Structures are given as structure tokens and as C-alpha cells.
Amino acid sequence: MIIRECREDDLSLLEHHIPSGRTRIHEARFHRQQQGLSTFLTAWIDFVPVGHGEIRWRGCAAAEVRERYANCPELNGLAVWPPERQSHGIGTAIIHAAEATAAQRGDHHIGLGVDDHNLRAAALYLRLGY
Ligand SMILES: CC(C)(COP(=O)(O)OP(=O)(O)OC[C@H]1O[C@@H](n2cnc3c(N)ncnc32)[C@H](O)[C@@H]1OP(=O)(O)O)[C@@H](O)C(=O)NCCC(=O)NCCS
What we know:
The protein is an alpha+beta fold. Helices cover 36% and strands 22% of the residues. It contains five helices and four strands; from the N terminus they run E-H-H-E-E-H-E-H-H.
């Protein structure tokens, strides 16, 4: 597996294999990366995208979170797709890649949020020390 920053010519493959529908979220994430606001990490197996996560360097979009965790980049939009690919370590690898990317920039903290009902993802984050 390879985990690397998204490139413009990845967008059609991302949309094909991990459809975002009308949200066009891959494009939006790539656009933020182009603006220097984020790093959009993509995971690939045999040239097929299987997951992604976006490090938002300015932190969470919610002001109350930014207030409490100032200067803390956020790992957003973490997903592994299709579901058969989940539970094989890809999500963990993306999280570790995000941590390494942040550390290279001198950011030694990174945060993330998870829905109250997403117990499996929450358990994973807790295991990893979040
Ligand atoms: C949450 C998510 C990103 C985690 O990614 P993942 O690739 O499934 O996570 P990992 O495989 O690294 O770790 C999760 C599980 O796999 C297990 N695992 C890790 N490496 C493994 C391996 N090599 N072999 C077998 N199992 C492994 C872990 O113990 C863990 O167990 P669980 O299935 O009981 O949770 C992914 O499941 C997903 O996209 N879920 C839907 C979207 C979502 O909820 N996103 C998060 C929003 S905050």
C-alpha cells in the first residue's frame, strides 16, 4: 500500500472508486490542499484508491473546538472504501501517515472528531491514543 498526497490527476479515479456524489468532496479537499489549508492523503493498493484522510492545518471548522485546542491540526474525512477493505489496517496506516506528516511540519499534536454513534471508529482512535 502507498499513502501519499492527492494529485490533480487522481481525482477522477477517486471519484470512480470512492464516489462522493454531488458533494464532490474529493475535489473540495484537493482544492483546500492547493490553497495550503490542508494535506489530502490518499491510500492506494495496486493503483486503486482505498482510503483517504485530510489534515486540516488550521484545525477543526468549529470555532468552539479551535478555541479549546488552539494550534491543533485536525484529521478529517478519514475513510476506507469499499467496506471489505476495512479492518485490515488501512485506517491505522493513514492515521500514522497523518501523524508523520504533521511531525515533519513541527506539529506534534493532531486531533480528530468522531460521531457519538461511531463506536468502532472511536474504539480505534482510543487504542491509538486519541
Ligand atoms: C473508521 C475507519 C476509517 C477505520 O479504518 P480501518 O482500515 O477499518 O481500520 P483498521 O483496520 O486500521 O483498524 C480497525 C480494525 O482492524 C483491526 N486490524 C488492524 N490491522 C489489522 C490487520 N492487519 N488484520 C486484521 N485486523 C486488523 C483492528 O484491530 C480494528 O479492529 P475492529 O475491526 O474491531 O475495529 C474505517 O473503518 C471506515 O472508513 N469506516 C467508515 C467511515 C468512518 O466511520 N470514518 C470515520 C469517521 S470519524
